[in-house]
Amino acid sequence: MTEGESLSPGEKSLRRDFAAGRFLSGQAARRWQLLSINWPYAIIEVFAADGQAFGFRFECTGYPYAAVTAQPWEVVSNGPLAPGRWPKGSSRIPLAFNPGWKGGACLYLPCDRQSIEGHDNWRHQYPSLLWDPAKGICKYLGIIHELLNSSEYAGRHAA
Q1: What is the C-alpha separation between 63 and 10, in angstroms, rounded?
Q2: Where on the phi/psi map is residue 22: left (φ > 0), alpha (ψ -120 to 50), or beta?
Q3: Which of 60, 106, 111, 138 is catalytic?
Q4: Could you write out the DSSP letters of every residue in 53-113?
Q5: Extents of the domains making up the chain
Q6: pLDDT category, 60, cuts 50, 70, 90?
C-alpha cells in the first residue's frame, strides 16, 4: 500500500480489534497468535491443549458486520492444511474440523460465513456459537480454542 492509499473500513476494524484488549489478552494467554494480515486475509495460529499450533486463514471481507470464514492453513508452505493434518478427536471435533465439508474451505461452525448458509436452524439451536460483530474475530477464535482445548481433542492426524 502506498502512502496515499487508505485502508478499507473492514481492514481498519480488523486491525483495531487486533490491537484491542480482547485479542491481545488471548494472545498473551497463548490461546492464539496473529501471524500476518494481507487484506482481506489474516493468518492466525490457535494453540491446542497439547501445545500444537493450528494455523487458520481467515477471509474477512465485510468485517465486522459480515461473518468471517476460516480455513485450516499450513503456515510454513502458505497453503491449505492437508486433510491428514487436521485436528482429530471425538464428538464435536470431527464435526467442526471436517475436511470433507465444502472441500476443506471452512470449518463446520455456526459462526462461519460459509457454514451458516443453509443452516437457518442453527440460529435457534446454537445462538451462543453465532457470529457476533461486537466480539468480532475473537468470537470465532474463542470457539476454535475451546474445541482444541476440550477433552474431545486428541491431537493432530498423522501426515
Answers
A1: 5
A2: alpha
A3: 111
A4: EEEEEEE-TTTTTSPPEEEEEETTTTEEPPGGGSEEESTHHHHHS-TTGGGGTS-S-TTSH
A5: 9-152
A6: very high
**Measured between alpha carbons, how far is 32 from 117 in angstroms, rounded to an integer?**
27
Q: Rounded distance, CA 36 to CA 56, Å? A: 11
Cβ atoms of residues 43 and 56 within 8 Å = yes
Q: pLDDT tens digit string along 17-30?
A: 999 999 999 999 99
Hey, how many other C-beta atoms are within 10 angstroms of the C-beta on 127?
10
pLDDT digits (tens, 9 = 90+) for 71-124: 999 999 999 999 999 999 999 999 999 999 999 999 999 999 999 999 999 999
Which of 51, 151, 50 minimizes the C-alpha distance to 92?
151
Q: Is 106 among the catalytic positions? A: no
Q: Which amino acid is at 42?
A: A
